Structure formats: C-alpha cells, structure tokens
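From the pipeline queue, job 12 of 40. The input is one protein chain; the requested action is below.

Action: predict structure.
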Amino acid sequence: MQYSPNNPVCTSPLVDAGTVDLIRGLGKNVVSSGDMIAQFEATWSEEQIKTHFAARDSIDAITAAAFQEIGRRVRNGGTNEAEIQKWILEAFRREDLVADDPPVVAVNANSADPHYSPSNAPAPIREGDFVLLDIWGKKAVPNAVYAVPNAVYYDITWTGFVGKSPSDRMQEVFRVVRDARDAGAKFVTNAIAAGEKIAGWQVDQAVRSTIQKAGLGDYFVHRTGHSIGTDVHANGANMDDLEVHDERRILANSCFSIEPGVYLREFGVRSEINMLVRANSAEVTGRMQSEIVII
C-alpha cells in the first residue's frame, strides 16, 4: 500500500491509519509500495534517456559559457546575479530548454544558502568573488515554451572564482566536496557492477562520511541527492540519510543527483552530478568539475 513505515518517505503515504489497522486486523502484513511507485514514476525509457543527454549537451555548454560571460561583464562595466540569471534563461530559449524555476546564481555569502535565489536586490559580481551556478532544465519543443513530451531533466552545480587564484580555504573546501562527490559516484558504480541492491541512504552515507572525516560534517546540511525525472525532483529514491532514512532501492533506468555541499559563513561549495543506473552498470552522465573554474 502507499504507506511508509515510520513515515521517512513523507510524499508516498496516501492510505489512512485506520485502513492500515483494518488490513492488519485481517492478518495481513502491510508493506510499502515505494519501490513499485518508483518503478512506474522514476524509471526512464530509452527515448527519455535520449532527452536527458540532449539536455546535458546544451546545459554543459551554457554553464561553461555563463562563466565566460561573467568574466567578460565584470571586466567591462560590471554585472550582478540577476543579470547572469537572465542571460542563462535567454540561452535556454535559444537552446530549446525549459525549467520549472530559474537557475541559481549565487555570489560569496549567498552561495552558502542552499536554497538561495536572486532577490529584488541582487548582489553584484566583482573581481575576487566566489560564484555558484546551479542550472537544471529539459528539452522543449523547438520554438515553443513547453517541454518535449516525457522529457527528463539534467541538473548540475558548478563553482568559479572571478580572478587569478581562489583562496586556500576555497580550494580546500572545494577538494573536500569534490572528493565526497566522487566517493558517492564510485560507491554506486562499484555496487551496481557487482550486482548489489543498494538504497538511497547508503549513497548518502558514502558521501557524508567523506565530509565528516574532513571535519566539515556540520556544514553539510542537506541530503546528498534527489531522484530526477520529468520533474527535477522525481518520485524515486533520494540519496538521503539525513533528512530521512530513504530505504527505497535504486532501480535500473533511474537517475539521481549526487550534490554534496559545504556551507560556510562567507561562501558555500556544492558540486552536483547526475548518475544514470542501468541493469548492470552506472554512469555519470555529464562533465565532472575537478577544480574551481577560474573566471
């Protein structure tokens, strides 16, 4: 039934407690339908997988170009978070992409807010600033404002520095986040290749433990990742052992993000990749940031 024992997956329970009691009173055991729901709602067809890779090609290129545009504008009169957000949305229209919300462009302390969005007073972007871009989208029908039917999302986060050299602290935190991200990807890749059944909470543990060992665990304040589908946050297993203990299995032909973050007072680093799981293999579907982008 659509029931989650102790309610860790709060989006799936629809059956009322009285009905659960009634069924149990008939001598039946009620089990969660979470994995079955994920099979129908969060696994992809081959056509959907093609739309993911098409979105990847466009968004990876837009992200790289956005950093270049930031540098060009900073050195030619200046810019701010909202102007770069607008530039990215214009690039989305050119590339036939749509998204449920605008991308995140966050500078310095604003990048330390995992849910930040430029306000009516967007921060300027200047030489010496740390910049985070979180960009997600899916393919749209050409010259239209609506998505290709059943198209799925691609969702990434990269960070950059406006200047010649990020501070030692920036580089240290970035390396910790990068290594945690890579530990999660390696765990998934090895487990699926070995034929193991894994759940979302296990991926979160693999990532979170890396950050905890570096002494930064208190600054990683959200789950490691989320299910991706026709909605950017889909109804499959989330990589989560913090907000909830997500015991849903990671299914073949499903996709999810791995996006650890460390959020200090002056800046925050998040590095987000997407992983696509097949029956016997798993892959990162896009580019993986290895160093802070020099803007």
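Job complete. The chain has a mean pLDDT of 94.
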